[in-house]
């Protein structure tokens, strides 16, 4: 398979490196299009693939074109890519917000798959949801799914409209997790621990709790109850969270991320 990646930043290269790692593409068949000279030089030094700095007719020779620039950079990319695509090429967009219909119109191209990954894809532990234009055949959907599976887990969505919700939940989700951990570490420092000790206490707690959640038969509510003794310390913390509407605040943040994804399409 031959693949071109337009925009080789964090996510573009997370995908590229996973494909290489699992031998889904050979480096000589991986065209890395990166506008930023410094970034391009780094990729060249890493021998990550065939690195170029401009979009050219070379993309007509690949099976799959991945769009991984920021949504704000997409309009200029679209005008350069439109006209270079052959009808049987697949375009995979991982850009937040931009719907399949808009991609089809701006690229004058039918075969579009739209995906929303997240940064743990860097470790092959990503979570990606994807949807495809009705014109993309099952064999092509499977090809894209196999590629995404090299970056972690993939789920196919019949309803493309849910991709913005995925963006708010799992696309941006790693940042919420890091935010929570950082807040807990900061609390530890406020209570007198040095930052390294506080980070150890918090990170190991989160790691152990994740595995407990994954292996236990108990629901999340039951797991919470198992920690919160009646009249005890956890109960005091949970009551404070309720008073400050921490859960509601988190949910409002997720809805804001989803809504921002919709705005990025405009
Ligand atoms: N970072 C994240 O957690 C996630 C990002 N995304 C989406 O992935 C896309 C990329 O995000 P990141 O990798 O974080 O951004 P990034 O800024 O790390 O990478 C974008 C790259 O595109 C390059 N670029 C811009 N215009 C170009 C052009 N005309 N030709 C070639 N290269 C060009 C930039 O120089 C940059 O290296 C965005 O659309 C974002 O919505 C999706 C899921 C998660
Ligand atoms: O913040 C963003 O816009 C991108 C999309 C999902 C995660 N990062």
UniProtKB/TrEMBL annotation:
Domain called Pyrroline-5-carboxylate reductase dimerisation: residue spans: 160-264
Subcellular location field: Cytoplasm
InterPro entries: 6-PGluconate_DH-like_C_sf (IPR008927), NAD(P)-bd_dom_sf (IPR036291), P5C_Rdtase_cat_N (IPR028939), P5CR_dimer (IPR029036), Pyrroline-COOH_reductase (IPR000304)
Catalytic activity: L-proline + NADP(+) = (S)-1-pyrroline-5-carboxylate + NADPH + 2 H(+); L-proline + NAD(+) = (S)-1-pyrroline-5-carboxylate + NADH + 2 H(+)
EC id: 1.5.1.2
Molecular-function GO term, any one: pyrroline-5-carboxylate reductase activity
Annotated Pyrroline-5-carboxylate reductase catalytic N-terminal domain residues: 2-97
Principal subcellular localisation of the protein: cytoplasm
Key word NADP present: yes
Pathway listed: Amino-acid biosynthesis; L-proline biosynthesis; L-proline from L-glutamate 5-semialdehyde: step 1/1
Cross-referenced Pfam families: F420_oxidored, P5CR_dimer
Alphabetically ordered keywords of this record: Amino-acid biosynthesis, Cytoplasm, NADP, Oxidoreductase, Proline biosynthesis
The keyword Amino-acid biosynthesis belongs to this UniProt entry's keyword annotation: yes
Family: Belongs to the pyrroline-5-carboxylate reductase family.
NCBIfam families: proC
Role this protein plays: Catalyzes the reduction of 1-pyrroline-5-carboxylate (PCA) to L-proline.
Name this protein carries in UniProt: Pyrroline-5-carboxylate reductase
Source species of the chain: Aquirufa regiilacus
